[in-house]
Automatic annotation (TrEMBL):
Keywords: Amino-acid biosynthesis, Decarboxylase, Lyase, Lysine biosynthesis, Pyridoxal phosphate. Its cofactor is pyridoxal 5'-phosphate. It catalyses: meso-2,6-diaminopimelate + H(+) = L-lysine + CO2. Residues 30-370 form the Orn/DAP/Arg decarboxylase 2 C-terminal domain. The gene is lysA. NCBIfam families: lysA. GO terms for molecular function: diaminopimelate decarboxylase activity. This is Diaminopimelate decarboxylase.
Length: 416
């Protein structure tokens, strides 16, 4: 069940009214439901059943400390792509031994810190990265646990910017050549080869591409085992999508994972997953206020106080995100509205052509804004990033304060 429901004609998150939150904390405002996050994480755990595995939340999707803390308490591991994310996880009470480190450009100092903390695994993406990791581990006199990110060359059938498992993408090592890399790694003094990983794309609404990918990887696992390289885990990355609109199918996370587990039934291989979006997207909204209504005859503009700097997905990926009135009314101006923001760019919209009855001053909620939303916000047009609120039942906590204007130039100088 969604955590966002209408109660007495008002949109609520769990048992807190969004109107009340907007009045207390101002807009634009990100609001998350704790129980929605927990429920989605639990759906992954259920999918694993008794199979050995680790669910590593992809921190890039929502890196707020409170969100990470709530997942850490549930036993989650974390998928990180930078030292920044690593330090966040530690600051949020995450367990270093449950961290997998992804990313194509890991720096030596990032590797060093991750080795000191004793992370679960480095997901290595190139031969040169492997050499660097071996050198860094030698300096610290430890062995680095390594998995290679294999590019399985499968079509994830999603938006080209978030499709990552095709040969033409920059990610991973070509499935045709990775065996040689494994052989080289197995000979290295400070590398411990433990796994194989892939991530084929994001917002996938079908299980089939994952099943194709796992089969390709398992063929390779067998070839490696035939030459004496035995892996402990297989990491299928993230990528399960969410229902953004009525046209989307709602993927059943538990069933997806069960399907993957079925491929591993007769094997002694743990399953690692790196879900981001499917855990947090539908646990969050961006609440924004209509400043003005404006009509040019052809288009009806609802000019709101939230813009592409707060939520860039519609502008960047033509992403469709549902917009709901926080207090629906029938006595406003009924039209097909383009919800546009304050930024001086034509691409600054959060939704177009949405039928609603509106008056200026109304509040709207952009739904499914718990993933890749606040984390991609910027200060463009010298706008402070919104506050973030985490709600649990009747309780609302400010888990990130709104940025103050003076914060925005605190690191600058007059250059005199
Ligand atoms: N693992 C790796 C290596 C990844 O690159 C990603 C996402 C994930 C896991 C998590 O994938 P998820 O479960 O969230 O699909 N900003 C875009 C999405 C970019 C995804 C990047 N990688 C958006 O707003 O749609």
């Amino acid at each position: 069940m969604s955590a966002f429901t209408y109660q007495q004609d008002q949109l609520y998150v769990e048992n807190v009214s969004l109107t009340e939150l907007a009045e207390t904390h101002g807009t634009p405002l990100y609001v998350y439901s704790k129980s929605a996050i927990e429920q989605q994480f639990d759906a992954y755990q259920q999918g694993l059943g008794g199979h050995d595995g680790l669910i590593c939340f992809a921190v890039k999707a929502n890196s707020n400390l409170a969100v990470l803390n709530c997942l850490a308490k549930r036993g989650a591991g974390f998928d990180i792509v930078s030292q920044g994310e690593l330090e966040r996880v530690i600051a949020a009470g995450g367990d270093a031994s449950k961290i997998v480190f992804s990313g194509v450009a890991k720096q030596a100092k990032e590797m060093e810190r991750a080795l000191e903390l004793g992370i679960h695994c480095f997901n290595v993406e190139s031969d040169e990265e492997l050499d660097r990791l071996n050198d860094v581990a030698a300096k610290l006199n430890v062995k680095a646990p390594v998995s290679f990110r294999v590019n399985p060359d499968v079509d994830a059938q999603t938006h080209p910017y978030i499709s990552t498992g095709l040969r033409e993408n920059k990610f991973g090592i070509d499935i045709r050549t990775v065996k040689a890399t494994y052989q080289r790694a197995a000979q290295m003094s400070h590398i411990n080869v433990v796994g194989m990983d892939c991530h084929i794309g994001s917002q996938l609404l079908e299980a089939q591409p994952f099943e194709d990918a796992i089969d390709r990887l398992l063929t390779l696992v067998d070839e490696l085992s035939a030459i004496g390289i035995n892996l402990k885990h297989i990491d299928m990355g993230g990528g399960i999508g969410v229902k953004y609109s009525e046209d989307d199918i709602e993927p059943n996370v538990t069933q997806y994972i069960q399907k993957l587990v079925n491929h591993l039934k007769s094997r002694n291989l743990a399953l690692v997953l790196e879900p981001g979006r499917s855990i947090v997207a539908n646990a969050g909204v961006l609440v924004s206020r209509v400043e003005y209504l404006k009509d040019n005859g052809e288009h009806h503009f609802a000019i709101i106080d939230g813009g592409m700097n707060d939520l860039i997905r519609p502008a960047l990926y033509q992403a469709w995100m549902e917009i709901k009135p926080v207090q629906p009314r029938s006595d406003g101006k009924e039209a097909y509205w383009d919800f546009v923001g304050p930024i001086c760019e034509t691409g600054d919209f959060l939704g177009k052509n949405r039928k609603m009855s509106l008056k200026s001053g109304d509040l709207i909620a952009v739904m499914s804004a718990g993933a890749y939303s606040f984390v991609m916000a910027s200060n463009y047009n010298t706008r402070g990033r919104p506050a973030e609120i985490l709600v649990s039942d009747r309780e609302a906590k400010v888990v990130r304060q709104r940025e103050q204007l003076s914060d925005l130039w605190a690191l600058e100088s007059l250059g005199e």
